[in-house]
Write a structure and sequence with these properties.
2 domains
Length: 176
Protein backbone atom coordinates (compact mmCIF):
# COMPACT_ATOMS: atom_id res chain seq x y z
CA UNK A 1 0.00 0.00 0.00
CA UNK A 2 2.80 2.46 0.82
CA UNK A 3 4.41 1.90 -2.55
CA UNK A 4 1.12 2.55 -4.37
CA UNK A 5 0.49 5.74 -2.41
CA UNK A 6 4.05 6.90 -3.10
CA UNK A 7 3.58 6.26 -6.82
CA UNK A 8 0.29 8.19 -6.88
CA UNK A 9 1.76 11.13 -4.95
CA UNK A 10 4.81 11.14 -7.25
CA UNK A 11 2.58 11.09 -10.34
CA UNK A 12 0.41 13.94 -9.04
CA UNK A 13 3.49 15.96 -8.07
CA UNK A 14 4.95 15.41 -11.54
CA UNK A 15 1.73 16.44 -13.23
CA UNK A 16 1.60 19.63 -11.14
CA UNK A 17 5.31 20.50 -11.16
CA UNK A 18 5.83 20.27 -14.91
CA UNK A 19 3.25 22.97 -15.78
CA UNK A 20 4.46 25.07 -12.84
CA UNK A 21 8.05 24.81 -14.09
CA UNK A 22 6.99 25.79 -17.62
CA UNK A 23 4.97 28.71 -16.27
CA UNK A 24 7.92 29.96 -14.19
CA UNK A 25 10.28 29.59 -17.17
CA UNK A 26 7.93 31.76 -19.24
CA UNK A 27 6.98 34.20 -16.45
CA UNK A 28 10.60 35.04 -15.64
CA UNK A 29 11.33 35.90 -19.30
CA UNK A 30 13.63 33.02 -20.23
CA UNK A 31 12.21 32.04 -23.66
CA UNK A 32 13.90 33.62 -26.67
CA UNK A 33 11.70 36.60 -27.53
CA UNK A 34 14.23 39.12 -28.85
CA UNK A 35 15.18 39.01 -32.52
CA UNK A 36 18.83 38.59 -31.51
CA UNK A 37 18.07 35.46 -29.43
CA UNK A 38 18.89 32.01 -30.72
CA UNK A 39 15.76 30.07 -31.69
CA UNK A 40 14.33 27.23 -29.66
CA UNK A 41 15.58 23.83 -30.81
CA UNK A 42 13.37 22.65 -33.69
CA UNK A 43 11.61 26.04 -33.86
CA UNK A 44 12.30 26.58 -37.56
CA UNK A 45 11.21 23.11 -38.76
CA UNK A 46 8.08 23.27 -36.60
CA UNK A 47 7.11 26.57 -38.25
CA UNK A 48 8.23 25.71 -41.81
CA UNK A 49 6.42 22.38 -42.17
CA UNK A 50 2.86 23.68 -41.70
CA UNK A 51 3.67 26.89 -43.62
CA UNK A 52 4.86 24.92 -46.64
CA UNK A 53 1.83 22.61 -46.50
CA UNK A 54 -0.61 25.52 -46.27
CA UNK A 55 1.01 27.44 -49.12
CA UNK A 56 1.02 24.37 -51.35
CA UNK A 57 -2.66 23.78 -50.59
CA UNK A 58 -3.84 27.38 -51.09
CA UNK A 59 -1.51 29.10 -53.58
CA UNK A 60 -2.92 29.96 -56.99
CA UNK A 61 -1.50 27.92 -59.86
CA UNK A 62 -0.77 30.91 -62.08
CA UNK A 63 -1.12 34.65 -62.32
CA UNK A 64 -4.34 36.03 -63.78
CA UNK A 65 -2.38 38.97 -65.22
CA UNK A 66 0.54 38.87 -67.69
CA UNK A 67 4.13 39.75 -66.83
CA UNK A 68 3.94 42.76 -69.17
CA UNK A 69 6.23 45.79 -68.94
CA UNK A 70 3.29 47.77 -67.55
CA UNK A 71 2.64 45.24 -64.75
CA UNK A 72 6.35 44.82 -63.94
CA UNK A 73 6.83 48.61 -63.74
CA UNK A 74 3.77 48.91 -61.49
CA UNK A 75 5.13 46.03 -59.36
CA UNK A 76 8.44 47.88 -59.00
CA UNK A 77 6.63 50.94 -57.68
CA UNK A 78 4.75 48.82 -55.16
CA UNK A 79 7.99 47.08 -54.17
CA UNK A 80 9.70 50.43 -53.64
CA UNK A 81 6.80 51.66 -51.49
CA UNK A 82 6.00 48.56 -49.42
CA UNK A 83 8.87 46.03 -49.61
CA UNK A 84 12.20 47.74 -50.14
CA UNK A 85 12.68 48.81 -46.51
CA UNK A 86 12.97 45.16 -45.38
CA UNK A 87 14.04 43.35 -48.56
CA UNK A 88 16.43 45.90 -50.08
CA UNK A 89 17.31 46.56 -53.71
CA UNK A 90 19.89 45.13 -56.08
CA UNK A 91 22.31 47.96 -55.22
CA UNK A 92 21.52 48.32 -51.52
CA UNK A 93 20.59 45.46 -49.16
CA UNK A 94 18.30 46.43 -46.31
CA UNK A 95 19.96 47.17 -42.99
CA UNK A 96 16.56 46.72 -41.26
CA UNK A 97 15.98 43.31 -42.83
CA UNK A 98 19.29 42.04 -41.45
CA UNK A 99 18.16 42.79 -37.87
CA UNK A 100 14.85 40.91 -38.09
CA UNK A 101 14.29 37.37 -36.85
CA UNK A 102 14.38 35.50 -38.98
CA UNK A 103 16.28 37.87 -41.21
CA UNK A 104 14.27 39.18 -44.15
CA UNK A 105 15.49 37.68 -47.42
CA UNK A 106 17.21 40.18 -49.70
CA UNK A 107 15.12 39.69 -52.83
CA UNK A 108 17.57 41.11 -55.39
CA UNK A 109 20.66 39.22 -54.22
CA UNK A 110 21.80 35.75 -55.29
CA UNK A 111 21.51 33.07 -52.62
CA UNK A 112 24.86 32.07 -51.17
CA UNK A 113 24.51 28.40 -52.09
CA UNK A 114 23.30 28.79 -55.70
CA UNK A 115 22.61 31.33 -58.41
CA UNK A 116 18.97 31.94 -57.54
CA UNK A 117 18.06 35.61 -57.06
CA UNK A 118 15.61 36.22 -54.23
CA UNK A 119 12.45 34.16 -54.72
CA UNK A 120 12.73 33.88 -58.50
CA UNK A 121 12.82 30.08 -58.18
CA UNK A 122 9.50 29.97 -56.28
CA UNK A 123 6.21 29.60 -58.13
CA UNK A 124 4.65 33.04 -58.57
CA UNK A 125 1.55 31.75 -56.73
CA UNK A 126 3.67 31.05 -53.65
CA UNK A 127 5.05 34.60 -53.63
CA UNK A 128 1.52 35.94 -54.13
CA UNK A 129 0.28 33.84 -51.16
CA UNK A 130 3.01 35.27 -48.93
CA UNK A 131 2.30 38.84 -50.05
CA UNK A 132 -1.43 38.39 -49.49
CA UNK A 133 -1.34 36.46 -46.19
CA UNK A 134 1.99 37.39 -44.61
CA UNK A 135 4.02 34.88 -42.61
CA UNK A 136 3.60 34.46 -38.86
CA UNK A 137 6.64 34.64 -36.60
CA UNK A 138 8.49 36.77 -39.17
CA UNK A 139 8.19 40.43 -39.99
CA UNK A 140 6.27 39.70 -43.21
CA UNK A 141 2.92 41.51 -43.00
CA UNK A 142 -0.25 40.50 -44.81
CA UNK A 143 -1.04 42.89 -47.65
CA UNK A 144 -4.38 41.28 -48.53
CA UNK A 145 -6.35 44.21 -47.10
CA UNK A 146 -3.83 46.89 -48.10
CA UNK A 147 -3.15 46.15 -51.77
CA UNK A 148 -5.58 45.20 -54.52
CA UNK A 149 -5.46 41.74 -56.11
CA UNK A 150 -3.83 43.27 -59.19
CA UNK A 151 -1.18 45.05 -57.10
CA UNK A 152 -0.33 41.85 -55.20
CA UNK A 153 0.07 40.02 -58.51
CA UNK A 154 2.17 42.84 -59.98
CA UNK A 155 4.72 42.75 -57.18
CA UNK A 156 4.70 38.93 -57.18
CA UNK A 157 5.36 38.85 -60.94
CA UNK A 158 8.18 41.37 -60.49
CA UNK A 159 9.85 39.18 -57.86
CA UNK A 160 9.47 36.10 -60.04
CA UNK A 161 11.57 37.90 -62.68
CA UNK A 162 14.33 39.09 -60.30
CA UNK A 163 16.89 36.89 -62.07
CA UNK A 164 16.00 38.26 -65.54
CA UNK A 165 16.39 41.64 -67.22
CA UNK A 166 13.49 43.93 -66.35
CA UNK A 167 11.94 46.83 -68.25
CA UNK A 168 14.07 49.98 -67.86
CA UNK A 169 11.70 51.72 -65.44
CA UNK A 170 11.39 48.67 -63.15
CA UNK A 171 15.15 47.99 -63.31
CA UNK A 172 15.91 51.57 -62.27
CA UNK A 173 13.47 51.38 -59.34
CA UNK A 174 14.97 48.17 -57.91
CA UNK A 175 18.55 49.15 -58.73
CA UNK A 176 19.12 46.41 -61.29
Amino acid sequence: MNRTVLMIVSFIAGVLLLPLGIYLYIAFGHPPVATADKPFPLEQPIVKIPLKARIEREMPAESPIPASDENLNAGAGIYEDKCEVCHGTHDEPSSIGKTMFPTAPQLWVKHKNNNVVGVSDDPVGETYWKVKNGVRLTGMPAYGKILSETQMWQVSLLLSKADKPLPAEAAKTVGQ
